[in-house]
Amino acid sequence: MILMGFTCKPRRVSITALHAGTTADRNTMIEYLRTTGKRFLSLKRDKIRLKDCLLMWDNARPHTATDTREFLTQRDVEPVKQSPYSPDLNLCDRFLFRKLKHLLREDEFGGHEEATLAVQRR
């Protein structure tokens, strides 16, 4: 599973690949938000605060968990809820995953680690 965060202006992408066989839970989501927030703030130019990011989330349990909501509330972050019947409005599905699919379409991977490295290189 891959967790991705991106900003439109300036263009920044944060990619975190989970180890094979693991799933995202509320703790994984909070840690991802914490490390992504630190990564965006550590940029030398165009620092980005987590509360300035647009979080488009569906109704997945890690997104709606009480701990996750409290973490975001403490940081004054308001996620945008995606309509369950409008996946075409999800920016990741429309742009980011399509672009990754295009970039990686001819690559072959020997396992999870190789795929992770290929995604992170792009």
UniProtKB/TrEMBL annotation:
Top-level division of the source organism's lineage: Eukaryota
One term of GO molecular function: nucleic acid binding
InterPro entries: RNaseH_sf, Tc1-like_DDE_dom, Transposase-MT_Hybrid
Segments forming domain Tc1-like transposase DDE: 23-106
A Pfam family reported for this protein in Swiss-Prot or TrEMBL: DDE_3
Chain ranges passing through the membrane: none
Identification of the protein by name: Tc1-like transposase DDE domain-containing protein
